[in-house]
Amino acid sequence: MTRPADHPSVKPRRIGVMLTNLGTPDAPDTKSVKNYLREFLSDRRVVELPAIIWQPVLRGIILNTRPQKSAEAYRAVWSEDGSPLAANTKRQAAALKNAFGEDVIVEWAMRYGNPSIASALGKLRDAGCDRILLAPLYPQYCAATTATANDKAFELLRAMRWQPALRTLPPYYDDPVHIEALRTSIATGLATLDFVPDALVVSFHGMPARTLALGDPYHCQCQKTARLLGEALGRPVTVTFQSRFGSAIWLEPATDTTLEAMPAQGVKKVVVVAPGFSSDCLETLEEIAIRGREQFEEAGGTHFAYLPCLNDTPTGIDMLRTLLARELEGWRRPA
Asked: Which CATH code, of 3.40.50.1100, 3.20.20.70, 3.40.50.1400, 3.40.630.10, is assigned to 176-306?
């Protein structure tokens, strides 16, 4: 059929994949961190308090005290490629660029900071993607991570007259592909050490304990990941939760207090892994690999190692390729 002369140009129909991670400041300085924290801590999915109570605390106290300390922490792990989370997510997207054929475009975004979900979604639409898989890179589902990433994309779609079809990547905390990738990565890391650990600590990002009572499955999914991982490795693991903030009661036991207590209990050699993170970031590289080591050694520990996340390793990319390909089934068009 011949198109009319005044027919608008039509882009080739493509499929989009958008990898999403939490976020990062644009630079490791106080101003950039303050802007990032303002956006992050203003999200009602992250802090579930009435704005009339929370915003005065956020703007009057937290944003005037925390950014400087957080900027120092970011500087300890910043590189020429930027923050580790942004750099790792960018490399993951690059490694998946041609994984699903020429008609599938892979972009990446941060829920808070840059590149934004709005910019990544715009790129996919401009490229002709009428079907988009949203892929928040969180193995365990949490309203403060997975849900808010999807929320933002849904919010942006409300302003679109012609919306693309959407799918979302489910949590993969107990997926055999994920567990095997973790097992392979950790077993390889353990084999490179010059000591045999007395304990393997499995540290997940913490959440307020009330989220469990409210029905968030995060705690249960973390526990199942750890149990399956321990079974796959054939050794016991110690589950902890890190990154406590504020005066609320958080999921226990805490990673920092656990590491500090271990030497007195005869645990002098420890290895820490973080299977709740798809990419290394401030919370793994500064909080665990730097401060966690210091806390453990100051308490009398003699050997400490942090084993990296899956990141863009061949094992990690193979896992993501398998998970994403599964969710793209039925969307691929015949040649």
From this structure: 3.40.50.1400
